[in-house]
Amino acid sequence: MYVGRRMTREVIALSPKDTVRDANRILEENRIHHLPVVEGEELVGIVSDTDIRKWILREEMVHEEGTASRRTGSVEEIMTRDVITVSPGDTIEDALLILHRRRFGALPVVEGRKLVGIVTKADILAAFIDTLSIEGIGVRIEVILPQSANSLLRLIQKLAEMQVEIRSLVLSPYGQEFAAFLRIGTIDVATVKTRLRGYGFKVPELADFLG
After folding, report:
1. Which residue from 86, 62, 196 is spatially nearest to 141, judged by alpha carbons?
2. What is the pLDDT of residue 103?
3. Which domain holds residue 113?
């Protein structure tokens, strides 16, 4: 999966000279949390709802103290200038890792310095929901496999022999083995598990993970 497939292309953006209060209004009206800042088409910064709340709080404190604010109230005063970005050709996994490690909610998407989109945690979550077919009809089973391509191939072949459709398949390390998480198109999951065990596959139940 690539960022270019999941990003929002019609990006609401600000200019550096826009006011912070206008930025706050735009965020509230559109129910979003981040606004890229551009000059022409070039990305020069980003503003979050947290940045804006901090600015408003400081201004309210200044007003209560009766002192004059030296701020012009423009977006360029509060925007983050050193923006971390991704490109349309980056993977969703890479974008997710950046969001997780940096604790960001969104990443601008650029080609060179040109802003071409924005990708959020919600976009990435939707991508994984689609990839794993979570909203489709089916049930999930877990099969523990040796770390070899042949074991995975044999599992797929046995499911094909049973005429069980695989909707999605994810492999994850499980000690010295792999855990294969499959979403299959059947309602008779008990029979599938029983037959897989009969073929020698390790098919754990929930109690096995809780024990």
Report:
1. 196
2. 93
3. 3-129
Domain stops at, among 97, 114, 129: 129
- For residue 91, list its beta bridge partners: 2
Q: What pTM was computed for the model?
A: 0.78
Name the domain boundary from 129, 150, 168.
129
What are residue 206's phi and psi, to 5 degrees? -55, -40
Give the Cβ contact number of residue 155 at 10 Å: 19
pLDDT in tens, the chain (211 residues): 899 999 999 999 999 999 999 999 999 999 999 999 999 999 999 999 999 999 988 888 876 665 555 566 899 999 999 999 999 999 999 999 999 999 999 999 999 999 999 999 999 999 988 888 787 778 999 999 999 999 999 999 999 999 999 999 999 999 999 999 999 998 899 999 999 999 999 999 876 656 5
Whether residues 120 and 201 fall in one domain: no
For the chain, what is the total number of helices (H) and then of strands (E)?
Answer: 8, 7
Q: Which stretches of the chain are DSSP H helices? A: 3-6, 20-30, 49-65, 92-102, 121-131, 149-161, 189-198, 206-210
- Counting the structural domains of the chain, the total is 2
Q: How far apart are CA 158 and CA 156, in angstroms?
A: 6
- Are 84 and 165 in a shared domain? no
Which CATH number fits the domain that encloses residue 75? 3.10.580.10
